[in-house]
Amino acid sequence: RLAYADLLRVFACLAVIVVHVSGGWLESLPAGTADWNLLNAWDCLAHWCVPVFVMCSGMFLLDPKKSLSLPTLFFRHFLRLVAALLFWGVVYHLLYDFLGGTLSLESLPHALYAVVLGNTETHLWFLTMMMGLYLLTPLLRAFVRGASRGDFHWCFLIYGLFMLALPLFLRLRGSQTAALYANRFYLNFTLAFPPLAYVGYFVAGYYLKTYTLGRIAE
User: Fold this and answer.
1) Rounded CA gap, 170 and 174, in Å?
2) What is the per-residue pLDDT across 37-83, written as a single tens digit (0 to 9) for each?
3) How many CB atoms lie within 10 A of CB 208?
4) Rounded distance, CA 133 to CA 137, Å?
5) Cα gap 193→205, rounded to integer Å
6) Rounded CA separation 140/159 (Å)
7) Quick count: other Cβ atoms within 10 Å of Cβ 62?
8) b/e string for 29-42 if b means 16 or more Cβ within 10 A?
9) What is the pLDDT of residues 151-161, one digit of tens each?
10) Mean pLDDT, residues 9-15 taken together
11) For residues 94 and 107, is the Cβ–Cβ distance under 8 A?
12) Are 187 and 125 in contact (CB under 8 A)?
């Protein structure tokens, strides 16, 4: 247990609440108004929460000094997320049926089938994203085990360029190149396997736990 990791999770939980409260009201307000600007500011200031959650997972799961067998990864970590997704996905479907007056004995199998097909509440995307990162964990642990600090820097450079900086730059330009990149590469790349958009944060969690910032790369 690391005290600062626990504190990061606590503050990230609070930030998630801020994101959902402010983001939910944003959709009902005219853009550019004082209320919209205020809520947008709170929404932006709290969006660090998901990357921090991902980094907290990476700092522990990717540590090669700690043993992590495939059965442990699958039964202790992966299946726990599957169970949470199935449970809450079904609960939401049954709740909507109850509120709509259509709840019946057939609601449960229909709800379960809908969740298996990926028809869940939007905020549950975090569970599926983390499940994908867990599937990539054995490969990422192999990389971390043999990587030098310079290798990490190169990894972050490539990730930051193609997944963060270039999409932002092209979107701000509003050019045809931006649309081509967004639709044919970035969106297709990340929507096909959403965890790829968060791999950099996952690896960064281990890196920030292991290395002191400011030290010259070896």
Assistant:
1) 6
2) 999 999 999 999 999 999 999 999 999 999 999 999 999 999 999 99
3) 13
4) 6
5) 20
6) 14
7) 24
8) eeeeeeebeebbeb
9) 999 999 998 88
10) 95
11) yes
12) no
HSE-CB of 176 using CA atoms within 13 angstroms: 0
Q: Which residues contact 159 (CB under 8 A, 6 or more apart)?
A: 199, 200
Q: Which of 142, 92, 145 is nearest to 120 (CA)?
A: 92
Residues 6+ away with beta carbon under 8 Å from 59 = 2, 5, 205, 206, 208, 209
Q: How many Å apart are CA 218 and CA 36, to the nearest integer?
A: 47
DSSP state of 32: T
- Predicted pLDDT of residue 165: 82
What is the rounded distance in angstroms from the CA atom of residue 98 to the CA atom of residue 107?
9
CB 204 within 8 A of CB 156: yes
Neighbours of 45 (CB within 10 A): 12
Q: Are 88 and 113 in contact (CB under 8 A)?
A: no
Which residue in this structure is represented by tokens 């965890």?
Answer: 195
Positive or negative, the Cα torsion across 23, 24, 28, 34? negative
The one-letter code for the residue type at 2 is L
User: Would you say residue 216 has pLDDT above 70?
Assistant: no
Kindly list the distances between the CA atom of residue 74 and the CA atoms of 70, 85, 106, 146, in Å, as whole numbers in the listed order: 6, 15, 31, 23
Quote the tokens at residue 168: 């932002």
